Description:
Elements: E1 14-18, H1 22-40, E2 46-49, H2 55-70, E3 79-86, H3 98-113, E4 119-125, H4 133-141, E5 143-146, H5 157-171, E6 175-176, H6 178-188, H7 192-206, E7 211-212, H8 214-220, H9 225-238, H10 241-257, H11 263-286, H12 295-302, H13 323-330, H14 338-357, H15 362-375
Parallel strand pairs: 1-4, 1-5, 2-3, 3-4, 6-7
Helix pairs in contact: 2-3, 3-4, 5-6, 5-7, 6-8, 9-10, 9-11, 10-15, 11-13, 11-14, 14-15
Amino acid sequence: MASRTSKAPSAPSLTLICGEDEFAVKERAKQLFAEWTKALGGMDHEIIDGAAAHSGEALKALSKLREALQTLPFFGSGKVIWLQNCNFLGEERAATSEDVTESLADLAQELKEFKWDNVKLLISAGKVDKRKVFYKAIEKIGAVVNLTSWSVGDKDWADQASLWARKAIREREKEIAQDALQELIERVGVTARQLESEIEKLALYVGEKKEIELADVTAICARSKTVRAFALGDALGARNLPELLSRLDEELWEVKLDPKKSEIGLLYGLISKVRAMILLKEMLREGWVKPEADYYRFKSQLDRVPADKLPQDKRFNPLALNPYVLFKAVAHVNRYTQEELVRAMDLLLVCNQRLVSSSLDESLVLQQTLVQIVGS
């Protein structure tokens, strides 16, 4: 392959789609592969499985890729090669093999010298190591699309999920009412794979009906694990003690099963909820925002809040909070007086001290604190 005339490809001729969001990577790669094959026509396109359990399988996949690049299109039109599910471009076991590392470095040089007339190469992978020669080569002579998953820490995650969901629904020749879309996002949260699954269920559920309504979403869509994490704070905001204690029991059970979770983590989530209600109550008092049941209309109000009248310290600046967190607090803020919210914050801080410095049972400390807050 080194004998072929050197010609660096334009960005669309060589593309790496990668990222931690496995579902998004697969969907984007499928879309691009379909676009390329339709544009080039012909029947010579190849898909190579890049999923390798060990270095031997990785070397075999690279050998197939080289063979595909060296084989010209039979009918003389164009050819698309897709190395899919590639899992040896990061820090996986197969990727650390010296043989694989050398083979990737050689391939990188070959791609630089390759003549890209009517040939396109698509590689889809998970997390990649940007320090490696192969990644840097693709970045230089082709295009890299790095897809990150949505996170509740992203201020615009609800917007991203909503746009993605509406597009997926329209691809199924359906429409969705705004309140139904909002409920769908609230139930599913930030997981694209589950969002896709719930949309597919909805499309089948409504049958011939063209528009998905709120009743359809509430009837068929489940609440994700991510959204259930909000349930504890929502129950506190709603001042519903039975619901609050029930959600606390569920979260404490999760703490036992998941080493990444802790009672302190639950406490910090509750502190964030109370802080959001305190800040939102002040914003309502100032007339900067008004109660709004629609997330997008509420969020648009935040853009008009005078930033010069807000504190620079992010701990006390409501605009530093995720707008979705503030929106969720709208339905709860009037259930507490300002004095009760301040007292709740004091109780949570005392709870923090007891969890850190005492030998008391953590679940009992949390229960007592929540009863004091809601019962006050």
